[in-house]
Amino acid sequence: QDSLLNICMDAKHHKTQPGPEGQLYGQCALWKENACCTANTSLEAHQDQSYLYNFNWDHCGAMPEKCKRHFIQDTCLYECSPNLGPWIDQTDTSWRKERVLHVPLCREDCEQWWEDCRDAVTCKVNWHKGWNWTTG
């Protein structure tokens, strides 16, 4: 069981081993004592147009800040947490060998996320696939 904690997944921006990162930015600072992300990754997680995944939170119009903070927190968890081992799943893509699936979310967090984003809109059914990247 211990081998599932204190590890970093094999993905695009993750460090190979968790360790202290005293300069983590904003919402990612929660993991500064033991992180799988670098300070630069934590800063990029907060940018509307981030180099991390060439993705813009405002791709369908301005996302309200109260909604965006939940997506930023999700990104910080994914990039920085050394405790996602129980949910690591093997994948084989050009940019990562591992991902996380079915990470539990507290009911209160889920309900707050819904409340904060209920009036936001998206122009895409599934953010994980089906994008046309030909124009960059």
Automatic annotation (TrEMBL):
It holds the Pfam family Folate_rec. GO terms for cellular component: external side of plasma membrane. GO terms for molecular function: signaling receptor activity. Residues 7-135 form the Folate receptor-like domain. The keyword tRNA-binding does not apply. Keywords: Disulfide bond, Signal. Belongs to the folate receptor family. This is FOLR3 protein. The lineage of its organism: Eukaryota, Metazoa, Chordata, Craniata, Vertebrata. The gene is Folr3.
